[in-house]
Write the structure tokens for this entry.
Amino acid sequence: MRIGSVHIPSPLVLAPMAGVTDLAFRTICRELGAAYTITEMVSAKALCYQDKKTLPLMELGPEEHPGGVQIFGSDPVCMAEAAQIAMGQVLGRIHDVKPAAQIIQDMMDELYAMHRRVSAML
């Protein structure tokens, strides 16, 4: 399976569930065969207000690659800021420059596409 340019070696994917998919639960699911896991749903507003309890929700484990972070919210400006914060968290753990550059480009392309879709609805 592929999500964009990312290869997922198994069809087993753990969906984000608020209050359930913390790091410990995702680690267990990885050990049981989940190839792609996603964090708990993270509030964009909490990220924008720099809530100290929110950043740890986006922590990915050392074996949790590929992995995802789901951000929710309704304010497009706050969503864009939250996406930048999330990307900063993820990019701090990337060690290979070439894949990191491609990941950044893919994320930016998706962000611009999301912005265009949201703007068209306003």
